[in-house]
Design a protein that fits this description.
Number of helices: 10
Helix content: 40-55%
Shape: elongated
Number of strands: 4
Bound molecules: zinc ion
Strand order of the largest sheet: 1-2
Length: 281
């Protein structure tokens, strides 16, 4: 049994998924060549905007097939193992492959040389006469061809989609389980830095609200005459700003009155609950 060597490099599929321009440019250059050198053999090619549209169509279709297939390797909790993907669980994508292989079965032919006398040719654009049709229709055929060749490749599970930026890239270990889904290393670092900042802010705000509850209890302990000359929101904002200065972890420089009014319900609830987590001041 001869092995099928698909005419496809990872860089080709990644470019088609991320940009889709290379194929369209090639098609346009080819059509222009025919138009200038042998215009009596081919009709005049359409304008450049049609090729741009064709490139977008290729990218859009290829993404829809690849995304459906990729989703079969993602668990309900968002964890992903690309080696778990299952084409039979992606009906639309599987249909595209089935149709393509029906229309373009592998050809067994005597190879040009080398140790194997018989070779299997499959997915060669040249054999399929995929040149000279309408660019949009050709883009649809090209998307089916690229996706089928991807499925025939032994590196298909290294093609991944970044959870953060939606870009497509290659991973080195398809057996690895990505707890938060596949992400560019750069995007993953950015996302985790953001997560840390958010958590820090939440933690710092929580500490601030606990302090606010403590100050409100102290405020209520002051005589009514003093309370009359000290409006609570203004006084509280001042106390909290002083409290902030004493903290190591600071996510803001000062506490303004609107922080107090915005969080008033929460502060009141904490006062009523008799907040036990009184921070050291
Ligand atoms: Zn990314």
């Amino acid at each position: 049994m001869a092995t099928i060597k698909p005419f496809l490099a990872p860089a080709i599929i990644l470019e088609a998924l991320n940009e889709g321009r290379r194929w369209a440019k090639e098609r346009q250059a080819n059509a222009t060549w025919w138009a200038t050198k042998a215009h009596h053999l081919r009709p005049m090619p359409p304008g450049p905007e049609v090729y741009q549209e064709a490139g977008r169509r290729l990218r859009e279709l290829l993404r829809s097939y690849v995304d459906e297939w990729i989703s079969t390797g993602i668990e309900a909790d968002g964890a992903e193992c690309t080696a778990d993907r299952d084409l039979s669980q992606a009906p639309q994508a599987a249909l595209v492959v089935g149709r393509y292989t029906d229309e373009n079965p592998p050809i067994v032919a005597i190879s040009d040389g080398g140790p194997t006398a018989l070779g299997v040719l499959f997915g060669s654009r040249r054999l399929e006469h995929l040149e000279g049709g309408h660019p949009i229709r050709d883009a649809e055929a090209e998307a089916a061809r690229l996706f089928t060749l991807l499925q025939a490749s032994d590196w298909r599970h290294t093609v991944a989609k970044c959870k953060v930026c939606d870009g497509y890239y290659q991973i080195s270990n398809p057996e690895r389980r990505y707890q938060y889904g596949t992400q560019h290393p750069k995007c993953a670092r950015k996302a985790s830095a953001l997560r840390i900042t958010r958590e820090r802010r939440k933690w710092a705000d929580d500490e601030l609200l606990a302090a606010a509850a403590k100050f409100v209890r102290a405020y209520h302990g002051k005589p009514p005459r003093w309370q009359q000359t000290h409006p609570i929101a203004v006084w509280l904002a001042k106390q909290l700003t002083a409290f902030l200065a004493s903290r190591l972890l600071q996510t803001r420089d000062e506490v303004k009155r609107n922080f107090v009014t915005l969080h008033w319900r929460e502060i009141e609830a904490r006062v009523q609950a008799g907040e036990r987590k009184v921070p050291a001041s």
